[in-house]
Amino acid sequence: MITDSLHVANDSLQVTAGKSTDTSWIMHHILDAKELDFSPFGVIHLPEINLFGIDISITKHVVFMWVALIILVVALRIAAKSYKNSRVPKGVANFMEVLILYVRDEIARPTIGKGYERFMPYLLTVFFFILACNFLGLVPYGSTATSNISVTATLAILSFFAIQIGGVMKNGFFGYFKGLIPHGIPVWLLPIMAVVEFLGLFTKPFALAIRLFANMTAGHIVILALLGLIFILNTYVVVPVSIAFALFIYLLEILVALIQAYIFTMLSSLFIGMAVHQEH
Amino acid sequence: MDIAYLAAGFSAALTVIGGAFGIGKIASAAMEASGRQPEAAGDIRTSMIIAAALIEGISLFSLVICILLALK
Description:
The structure holds two protein chains of two kinds. Chain A is mainly alpha-helical.
C-alpha cells in the first residue's frame, strides 16, 4: 500500500517535471525497481516472472538480499570451518565470535533466561541478515533491502511466529493466552486487559516492521535531499556545505544501521522472553 | 492550495519536537545516573539506546503518515 502510493506520487511528479525543482530522482533511488541501474555505466534489466497472476519478478531489492545471503554464507562458513583446527579463533572467525557472543550474552541470555539456546539460531539469523542488508545499502550503487516494507514485514511476521510458537510450546495453548493477562488485577478490568493484551500480540511485531523500514528509508531520503540541494539551488557555493552535511548524515546512517539491527534482535528476544516466561 | 502538504509539514515538525524532547530527557537521566555511579555506565548506555530507539520508532510512525500525506 505504501509503495503503491509512492508509485502514484512518482507518476504525478513526472508530470510536473522539467522545472529545476523536479525531485522524482529521490523516489527513483529509494523505491524498488525491475532493473539494476549502474548509470552512467549501464543498466541491467532483471527478469520478470509472473506466476498464477502474482508478480514475483526479480527486483533490485531481491538481488541485494541474495548478495547479503551470499556474503553471510561465505563469511560464516569460513568462520565455522576455522574452528576445526583450533578452538582459538583467528581473522574472520574472531570478528564473528565477537558479534555472536554479544548476541548471546547481552541480548538472549538477559531477556530469555533459561532455555535461551533454542532461540539463538533465529536471533543470530535476524541480527546478521539485517546488519548485512543495512550495510549493503550504504555502499555506492547499493540499495537497502530492508527499506522495503515487504522485507521488514516478513521479518516481523517471522518474529511473530517465533514468539507465539515459543510461548505456546512452553505454556500450552490455553495456558499461554491465560497467562497474557497479569495477576492481581480487579475483576472489572479483565475484559479491557484481555482485549489490550490480545491486540498487543499483533501491534508489537507491527511496530518492529515499521521501525526498521522507516529508519532505513528516512536516512536515505535525508542524504539524497541534502545532495539534491546542490541541483535545486544551482550554485557552486552550496557544494561544500551540502557535502559536509551529507557526510555527517552518512556517518549517522552507519550508526543507525547497527543500532536498528540490534534493536530488532533485542526486541524480538524481549518479546520471546515475555512469552516464554510469563510469570515475570 | 493543498492542505495535505501543509498538514504533512506541520505534523513532521510536531513529531520531531516530541521525539527530541523524549530522547533529551532519556539522555539527561542517563548522564546523571552515569555520573552518580560510573561503574554502571555500560548498562546505563545500553538501556538508554534501547529507550531512544523505541521513542524514535514512535516518531517514525508519524513520519510515515506525513510521507503518505505529502505524496497524496
